[in-house]
Predict the structure of LacI family DNA-binding transcriptional regulator.
Amino acid sequence: MSNKGKKSANIKDVAALAGVSVATVSRYLNGELGRMSSKTAKTVQEAIEKLNYVPNSVARQMKTRSSKMIAVVVSNVDDYFSTELFKGISAILESRGYIGVLFDVDSDEQRERKLLRTIGSQMFDGLIMQPANGPQTIIEALRRPLPIVTVDREVDHSSWPQVIVNNYEIARSVSRHFRQLGYTHAIVLTSEIKKARTRQERYRGITAEFNHVDAIEISELAHNHQATYRRLVQLIQATAEKTLIFCLKERWLLEFVPQLVFDQLIDNQKVTATGFADTDYAHQLEPRLKLISQNPYLMGGSAAELMLNQLQDHPQPADRIVIPAKFK
Amino acid sequence: MSNKGKKSANIKDVAALAGVSVATVSRYLNGELGRMSSKTAKTVQEAIEKLNYVPNSVARQMKTRSSKMIAVVVSNVDDYFSTELFKGISAILESRGYIGVLFDVDSDEQRERKLLRTIGSQMFDGLIMQPANGPQTIIEALRRPLPIVTVDREVDHSSWPQVIVNNYEIARSVSRHFRQLGYTHAIVLTSEIKKARTRQERYRGITAEFNHVDAIEISELAHNHQATYRRLVQLIQATAEKTLIFCLKERWLLEFVPQLVFDQLIDNQKVTATGFADTDYAHQLEPRLKLISQNPYLMGGSAAELMLNQLQDHPQPADRIVIPAKFK
C-alpha cells in the first residue's frame, strides 16, 4: 500500500478514468457530494483508489504555507487537565476552520524536544503548548519560526502569548481558609516540585500560610503506591495538629484520598483534604471536599483565541491571560 | 508572523548569511548539534529566523511521500483506555522512527468524518483508529488510499488489519462467575449500546448468562448524574435477588460505584459490581472489586506493529490480533 517510486496520477487522469469532468472530481474532493449522484461519487472514488491518486493539497500548502493544522503539545494525555485543555483548544480552532492535533510529552522533557523537532519540520501553522522545557530549548528544537502560545506553565520573560492560572494566589487563599478553620499542619502531595513552575507557585502559596508543611514528592514516571500511602499515614498520625492534605495534582488526590476516607483517616475534623481537581469523580468524593477548579477547557479556548490572533496577523497588546481558579 | 506572499529563502541563503557551509546548516537542521560549536549553532539559528527559512522537508515529502507521522484517531481522549492505547502506539512507532499524532473524535461520529477528511488531505503515512463509523464512511471521508489499522472496535469483513478484545467471551465468562456465586440480576451501566460493536458484544455476553438484565444507557455527550444514580438505586432496591452491577465502561464505574459504596448499597453480598477498567483508581476502590482489564497499552503496541508491517510492505497473512482481557 506504499507509493514508493510510482509516478503519481493527476486529477485529469482520475476524471478520464471515471469518465467525468475535472470539475466533478474537484467537487468530489471538496466534499460537495450533494452536487453529484452517489453513483458518480462512487465511480470517482474507485478511480481515485485505482490510480492511487493523492489530492494535491500538499502542493497547495507549498504555495499558501497553510495546513490549517495547529500542533498542541500537552504534558501528559493521562491527565484530565491536559485532555480538557485540548478539547477547549479544538473547539475554538475548529470554529475558525483549523484543526488541533495532539502530541503527548508523557511527562518527559527529552521527549518534548523530540516532538518539537518533528513539529518544526512539518506543515503546522502554529503551536500551542503546556511547556516542559524553557523557551531557548523550545526554539532550538523547533528550528524554525512558528506562531506559539504557551498555556498553564508560566514562562518568564516570554515573547509568546500565554494563558496561566493564578497558582500562587489561589493556593495561598485556600491555605488561609483552612488555617482560619484551625488547620496548622499541611501535607503537600505533588509531582517533583522543581520540575514545573506551576507546582513551585502553588507550593509557595501554601508555605506562605503554613509553618508546618510536609511535602511528599511523587514521580509521575514510576512510583510505589503503597510506600507513598504508608508515608502519608505516618505523617498524619505523627502529629496532634489538625492536618490539611493539599494535592497539587488531581491524579494524586484520586489515587490517595479515597483510600484515606475508607481507612477513616479523613473526617473533615482532625484531617481534611483539598487540591486542584477538575473531574466529576473528584467532586463526587464522599465526604464532600472543597476543591480548586481551574477550568482547563476555558484555558484551552483562550489559548486558541491568542493563536488565532497571531495567525490573523493582529496579536493583541497584552497577550497574557490569567484565568482565576475557583474554590468550591 | 505569517509568511503570506514572501518569496522563501533556501538553505544557501541561510549558509551565506550565517557565514558557514551549506553542510553545516544541513547538520544543524538534522539536529547534529554535537558536530558544531554552540556559537555556530546560534549563528545558524539566527540566520534561519531572520530569513524566515522553512526546512524543505515538505518538498522532500513530495518526493518520498513520507512524513513519518501516523495519524491516531481515538473515540475520546477523556477515556484512560484511549490515551493508554495512544501511549502504546507511540512507544512502538517511535522505536522505528515514526511519530504518533493524536486526533480526538470526542464521541461524535460526524466529527470523526471531519477529522478523516483533514487526515486524508495531509501528509500522514498511515492511520490507526478506534473507529466510530463503518469502513465505507471512513474510505469516503479519507478520499485517498492510506495504510489503515483499526483497534478496539471490531469491523466486520474488513480488509484492514485489526486488534480487538474478546469482548463477548470475557463478558460471558465473568457473568458466569457471578451467576455461580448466586447473582441472578444484572444491571448494565453503559453508553448507548447500538453505537459501538464493542458494547453490543459485551451486552450479548451478559444476556447469554443472566435472564434478568436491566440496561441503563448513558449519553457520553450529556447526562444527568443524579437522575441516573436514582434510577440505579431504584433498580437495586426493586428486587430481593442478588444483583451484579456490570459497567461496560470504566468512566461509568468511577462515576457511580464510589457513591454506591458510600451509600452502603454495595456490600459484595446482596449487591456487587464489576466492569471493564484499567486505571489504578478503579483497582484501589474499597471494597476491592474484581474487574476486567484490557491492557490498552499492549493493544496499541500491537496495532502499531501491524501498521509498521504495512508501511514496510510486508503485511502478515493473518492480520487480526485478539488480545484476551483479564479478570482479576
User: Anything to note?
Assistant: Chain B touches chain A through 70 residues (CB under 8 Å). Chain B has 13 helices and twelve strands. Confidence is low (pLDDT under 50) at residues 1-6 of chain B. The two ends of chain B are 55 Å apart (CA to CA).
